[in-house]
Description:
The protein has helices at residues 20-28, 47-52, 61-67, 79-82, 101-110, 131-148, 178-189, 201-210, 222-231, 306-327, 329-335, 337-340, 353-361; strands at 2-5, 32-36, 56-58, 70-72, 90-93, 113-116, 170-174, 193-198, 216-219, 234-237, 263-266, 287-290, 293-296, 343-346, 349-350. The protein has 362 residues and is an alpha/beta fold. It has two domains: 2-120 and 305-361, NAD(P)-binding Rossmann-like Domain (Rossmann fold); 131-299, NAD(P)-binding Rossmann-like Domain (Rossmann fold, 3-Layer(aba) Sandwich), CATH 3.40.50. The chain starts with a strand and ends with a helix.
Amino acid sequence: MQIGIPKEIKSHEYRVGATPHSVREMVAHGHRVLVQRGAGAPIGLTDEQYLAAGAELVDTPDEVFARCALIVKVKEPQPSECRLLRPDQVIFTYLHLAAEPQLARLLMDAGVTAIAYETVTSPSGRLPLLAPMSEVAGRMAVQAGATYLQKPNGGSGVLLGGVPGVGPGKVVILGGGVVGYNAARMAIGMGADVIVADNSIERLRHLDELFAGTVGTRHATAGMIEALVLRADLVIGAALVPGALTPRLVRREWLARMQPGSVLVDVSIDQGGCFETSRPTTHSDPVFIVDDIVHYCVTNMPGAVARSSTFALNNATLPFVLALADKGCQHALVDDPHLAAGLNVQGGRVTHPAVAEALRST
């Protein structure tokens, strides 16, 4: 099979769909890999390294899309890329279609088979291709929050770790999954006062054991979330419903009662966001302010640490890429129901139930 690796074109997206190590494995399996020149350059992966791994270099995305049956990317195809897709093609990437009805329509119109990293499952019911970037985003969320709490950046001037004689900043994390756990680890490491809220008692019990009581846990009722948010210096939105729109957990009217200069970091923004005031932002313009509250809602947070993110993502995606290429898409999906859970669009229609339901509601 011919596998295509185009250069990412989303704003400030520096990751790449395959590293030279991944390309070498694909070639060893008998596949031909076309890599767009400069695709890995932003993170120090040279064209020469791709050539040494057995890739063929091409100059334009048009050639990658025209010649390849399987397109492997990181972020959702942009409109110019969607116009290059065709019915006999498979695209394997992050899609987050629940919050992107226009993209869903473009993929349906193209007739392409679109498999989304974020809805591929594992035998344990986890999301193995979302997890690496969730780990990165969770850790970055605390760094971003700490940065924008600084007064020159619009924040209240609170140091998360405090200093002797001055208490630490208060961090509230909404959601105790992979993002929430990693955010809690970072926040605790910085010396913050941390509380995680989740609607699963079992998950809260697990977090309490993991952190040995150093992280507070609360059951995420609406009243409890409101009380926590009003006292927080930093709120991290880490809620997730696989494939579906994220529930809006923080209401607009609460902001006026929060401490001015507090920060909201919405890691859930790819799925619509969990704050009523959230809207997507980019690394070039990452924040906005509503009622004196700083909002950080960058949709591709891990793209800022693109080298680490690329290698972490490739570790997870490579076995699935090889399955699709070795067996062909349909056989691979039949053989592996967990990969089949990643199928979002095929034959001009949305196939994933949660994504379809979310799109009907938008």
